[in-house]
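Researcher: Going back to the complex we discussed earlier. I've cleaned up the inputs and rechecked each line, so this should be the final set. Can you rerun the prediction on the complete assembly and write out the structure?
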Amino acid sequence: MIRTKYIKIKDLNFIEKIYIIEVLKGFVITFKHFFSNLFKMFTNKKIITIRYPEEKIPVLGVAKLKSNHRIKLRHDGTPKCVACMLCSTICPAKCIYIEAEEVESIIEKAPKIFNIDLSKCVMCGLCVEACPEDAISMDKGIFEGGSYNRFLNKSLGGLFYTKKELFLNLENEKISELGASNSLIFRREKYE
Ligand code: SF4
Ligand code: SF4
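Model: Rerun complete. Updated structure for the full complex:
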């Protein structure tokens, strides 16, 4: 048998209805934190907030896996991407644009153009999930999404990634001598 429990919701009295006490309580908490942090700042004690963007703190855990995109390179410096278009097909924001070309390499096909318009990207990560070559990842560790001109290239402060800005290995990523040598530079230039 189903038992129904009735809960009586207490009506607000006049003081509660005008919310003045609650607003004052909020002010007390805000000013308490404000003056406590101000005091700590002048006495050189550790404060919780940082002066972003001048100061940054390292992002821990898997959070860094949802940052800006990159296309990984193989150990010989060629891109892992084979221009299969799966990422651009699945992208719900339609912000990936790829044109393929034939290349004289083991991968045979590579992107001639690979653009990502971050001003449209919703950071869903579906492109990473769909990639059969594990070529695209979102682990660059760059999170900032603001710009004064979203049409500019990312390297110029905009939100538009081209191949030049996407094709890279991370500094701490293991890469063979061949990949890290001139051949990598040559390959990068070739694919620009
Ligand atoms: S993260 Fe989502 S919206 Fe952004 S490029 Fe990838 S699939 Fe498109
Ligand atoms: S990044 Fe991956 S899914 Fe996108 S075109 Fe290249 S190989 Fe295909």
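Model: Worth noting: The pocket of iron/sulfur cluster (ligand 1) is lined by residues 91-93, 95-96, 116, 121-127 (CB under 6 Å).
Researcher: Good, that matches what I expected from the previous run.
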